[in-house]
Inverse folding.
């Protein structure tokens, strides 16, 4: 499958559908929580203070080698993602108010409309979901790689909401089902999964790493930028 400019709307839908650093994060852990909702609020606060991270996002309905997204975030407004579908790769970069895309098979980037990368970074999506969480429940402590994780589940009403974890496919469904694993020592999100009760809706996972570490290579403006063409439609 080759991704072209004219297929960008499909790409956006696909990414939304499937579609994570250490000076060491500040530990908020020892803060006591009084309810499952309080756990989410403490984690939201911790994630809002993150300066950078790496992520990998994979579909749970397709082989991981078939379609996945990998990227980096650097506060406040630098983002970089690679979308891999089989052997095709599309890369996108955001620097402040500028967005650049390198479509598959092209050697240079071009500047694209600002909407193209809005809401794609996984921390933006999951924190929005956590703020609107319903039926929050603590499953319990789980061990992963020697780290104690707090496993929390909740639902999110996607009806009419355009900024949930998978807006293109879950919007209009009754509920999205979300599992979040939060590292107890920092209250940062280690990984999460999203699914839905809507027929054909996506199911995917996002894993974060390298919180507050220097992003390497640094996120910068592409060295080769071609003039934008009018063939891109949104």
């Amino acid at each position: 499958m080759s991704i072209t400019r004219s297929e960008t709307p499909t790409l956006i839908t696909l990414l939304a559908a499937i579609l994570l650093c250490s000076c060491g994060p500040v530990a908020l852990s020892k803060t006591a929580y009084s309810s499952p909702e309080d756990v989410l609020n403490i984690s939201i606060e911790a994630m809002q203070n993150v300066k950078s991270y790496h992520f990998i996002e994979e579909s749970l309905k397709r082989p991981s080698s078939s379609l996945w997204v990998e990227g980096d975030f650097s506060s406040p407004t630098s983002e970089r993602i690679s979308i891999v579908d089989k052997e095709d790769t599309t890369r996108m970069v955001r620097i402040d108010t500028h967005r650049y895309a390198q479509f598959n098979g092209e050697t240079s980037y071009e500047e694209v409309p600002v909407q193209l990368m809005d809401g794609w970074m996984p921390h933006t999506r999951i924190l929005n979901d956590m703020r609107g969480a319903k039926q929050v429940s603590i499953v319990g402590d789980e061990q992963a790689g020697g780290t104690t994780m707090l496993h929390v589940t909740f639902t999110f009403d996607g009806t009419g909401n355009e900024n949930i974890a998978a807006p293109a496919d879950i919007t209009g469904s009754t509920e999205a089902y979300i599992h979040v694993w939060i590292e107890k020592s920092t209250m940062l999100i280690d990984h999460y999964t999203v699914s839905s009760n809507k027929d054909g809706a996506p199911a995917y996972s996002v894993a974060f790493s390298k919180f507050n570490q220097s992003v390497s290579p640094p996120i910068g403006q592409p060295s080769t930028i071609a003039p934008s063409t009018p063939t891109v439609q949104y």
Notes: Residues 107 and 224 are 8 Å apart (CA to CA). The first strand starts at residue 52 and ends at 59. The first helix runs from residue 8 to 18.
